[in-house]
Design goal:
The chain is mainly β and 139 residues long. It is 3% helix and 35% strand.
């Protein structure tokens, strides 16, 4: 079976080989990579190999998917980045040239979800999120 790289757990453990060009990751038994942790969704995210580069797509998971600490919906995974699935971190290791990459990397959607973020003042309870001013319609 082909090997297209590895997910390496940052806290130690066995490397997880990437054996297919599309990989479903989640808690359910029908996933290609099964992560048996309660904070991992049944179908958490999907990895896909495109033009020699790995991409991750979050599948509306409850606890999110992050790349280098930023929550994403879809993102290119360059070699060496840290992929966080719920709270479990993995370094992705592969060589794009070995996987057919030619020229510059393909476009990166780089979709970052900031909707869950609030200001530090809001988090401390010192400020409330501002509501749209409905008393003054477009002037």
């Amino acid at each position: 079976m082909a090997n297209f790289g590895f997910l390496v757990p940052t806290g130690g453990g066995e490397d997880i080989p990437l054996k297919k060009e599309r990989i479903l990751i989640g808690r359910r038994d029908n996933c290609d990579i099964v992560l048996r942790f309660p904070n991992v969704s049944g179908q958490h995210c999907r990895l896909s190999l495109e033009q020699g580069y790995w991409f991750v797509k979050d599948l509306d998971s409850r606890n999110g998917t992050k790349v280098n600490g930023y929550r994403v919906s879809r993102k290119r995974l360059d070699p060496g980045v840290i992929l966080t699935i719920a709270k479990h971190q993995y370094e992705i290791r592969y060589n794009p040239e070995d996987l057919g990459a030619m020229g510059p990397p393909p476009g990166d959607d780089d979709v970052i979800d900031f909707s869950h973020r609030s200001s530090l003042l809001e988090q401390a309870g010192l400020e409330r999120r501002k509501k749209p001013d409905s008393d003054h319609p477009d002037e």
